[in-house]
Design a protein that fits this description.
alpha+beta, 3 domains, 16 strands, about 375 residues, 7-stranded mixed β-sheet, Arc Repressor Mutant, subunit A
Length: about 375
Amino acid sequence: MFPPRTEHAYYLNMEKVSERAETDIVGDAIAQLRKRLPGEWLLTKTAAPLTVSRKDSAFTLRSPDGVEAPISVNAKRLIEVRDVPRIREQFDLLRAKQPTSIGLVAARYLAKSTRERLTEAGLSYVDATGNLFLRADSPAVFLSDRGADSDPWRGPGRPRGTLSGGPAAMVVRTLLDAPGPWKISELVRASATSTGSVYRVIEFLEAEALVRRQDGFIAVPDWPALLRRWSEDYQFLRTNTVTRWIAPRGIEAFLDRVRQTEGPNFAVTGSVAAATWAPYAPVRAAMLYTTDIDASAAAWGLRPTDTGANVMLARPAYGVSLSQTIERPDGLRVAAPTQVAADLMTGPGRAPAEAEALVEWMTAHEGIWRLRS
């Protein structure tokens, strides 16, 4: 415990450190912008009489023909998706006084999801790794650049800011497959995941504004957004052990054989499964999960190949991929629609479009596929 005067001095010093860090961020941000602006454009620091926060910094952007626009810079070391609505409100107040003002968010690092949400909110941004987006109508300017896709300053002891891994998959699938709301204890039990893992996943989802807590319950306000965010980190081809095969007699004959054969635990996913609910186009290839790839390939008469495959067999990295499977009237066992949609979202060719068609069907028929307690 600090003595009173020492403790006061400590917190004053920490506040100064924080202010210096934000000053450094602003300096880096302006340097990034100046480096990318055409030679005759000017970016100069100005007084900030109308900024919402005393910590904001103000600059003026001047085009070669003399048109100017004020830029208000909101700088913080860490900005998450859940911070964006509040930042947008601050800049809206500023624009009410300065309609031509450009709201610029600056940070040490901005995650992809945060950058996307800032863009949707009509805000410009820049981080120290070079991720940059600046847009204005007067003067007309558009700057965009790509920096790092992961935080280079994240220490080795800090948890990764992703939804990769088995515990995340189990928690997310549970949140998607049933509407909730959930108590933490219920989510732990339903997802068959440790309490610590559930807390870590929920903490990340809160930062991404994908879940919210109210009166001790956890709710998902936008399940398609959660599904899309999980699919970015899950990725069927990257996460699972995937092998490629040829069904010599074609897809329909192959599926008939799958229906008639007893074998390892399996479920059809991808285009074939999506057609159960939302047919999109004639199926050209099949994707299946199976717990024993070699036994399944032999039972279904598949031939291994490096090129021209029309069947992919995947050994699932997580058991949840084979949970909540559905037996179709024609006898084919398909993965849960949430899993099928996630598998298609990061797939090649028309797969993302098929995923969106499936999500559209799921949105219109939520009472059919979502489990009720």
